[in-house]
Amino acid sequence: MDNNNHENSRLSAIEAILERSALEAERRDAEFERRDAEFDRQMMLLKAEAERSKAEFDRQIMLSKAEADKRHAEFERQIMLSKAEADKRVAAADKRVAAAQKRAAEAQKSMDHLNASIEKTGQQIKQIGQQMGGMANSNGDMAQEYFYNTLSHRKTLFGQVYDIITSDTKRKIKSTGVEVQYDITLDNGTSFCIVEVKYKADTYDVKKMYPKMVNKFREAFPEHAHKKLYLAMASMSFNSHIEKACIENGIAMIKPLGETIEVYDEHLKAF
């Protein structure tokens, strides 16, 4: 009886141990399964994170490439704009240069035309001057011939008779070699008259008669030094200034009067 109880107790203990062992084994299996599941979950999370990081990295790479492409495109655009602006400025500069060259050519053409006109005008002025000089000489010759013929015909002047009347009397002064010339001279042995002839007299013509003309006459014609010397201005026209100058210097005035002459000698003086 005791042995049976003892055997039963031993069997019950073994069963309890086996039962506990089975439970422990189940618990450990469950723990292993849990850990496997957790490991699988962690691995899934890590894989997901890795895939997300890769996706983000790829996205950043794409963004960077897109930004780089964008910047490159903008750079290319700026280069094209700069080139276009440079081409535009070069074209504008070329246009300005062409316009300046055109203006320069036009200015040169105008200058050439102006120079030609000036040269032509100068030639015309020269011709006119020659013509005027010829006319002046012609007028002077005409006036001298008129007064010489008239005086030669009447032979009297200042109430005196002159039997020697000459035109263009010339002689050199021995001391200087200077040649003097007088338009008309009248000589009667006791008095000598010099007539200066002008087509249109000027006050300068009157002023150079005295004392310059008188002094040169005395030097050139010493044989007439003992004679009374008279001066007269014969002109086709007089003005008030010339008349005043003649009166102040004691020079007679001879004016044309129809086919003869009119002599003003109230103020005349002998030199």
Description:
With 271 residues, the protein is α/β, with parallel strands linked by helices. Helix content is 66%, strand content 18%. The strands form 2 sheets. The chain has a 6-stranded mixed beta sheet, with helices on both faces. Strands 1-2 form a two-stranded antiparallel ribbon. The radius of gyration is 69 Å and the shape is rod-shaped.
Structure at a glance:
Helix content is 66%, strand content 18%.
Which key features would you list for this structure?
18% strand, 4 helices, two-stranded antiparallel ribbon, alpha/beta
Rounded mean pLDDT score: 84
Low-confidence runs of at least 5 consecutive residues? 125-136
Strand ordering within the main sheet: 3-4-5-6-7-8
- Describe the global form: rod-shaped
Order of helices and strands: HEEEEEHHEHEE
Global structural class? alpha/beta
Note the beta-strand portion: 15-25%
Report Rg.
69 Å
Roughly how many Å apart are the termini?
212 Å
Would you report the number of β strands?
Answer: 8
The helix content, as a percent range, equals 55-70%
Main β-sheet, in a few words? Answer: 6 strands, mixed
Separate helix tally: 4
Task: Provide the fold topology.
Blueprint: H1 2-154, E1 156-157, E2 160-161, E3 164-172, E4 179-187, E5 191-198, H2 203-207, H3 209-220, E6 228-235, H4 240-249, E7 252-257, E8 260-264
Parallel strand pairs: 5-6, 6-7
Antiparallel strand pairs: 1-2, 3-4, 4-5, 7-8
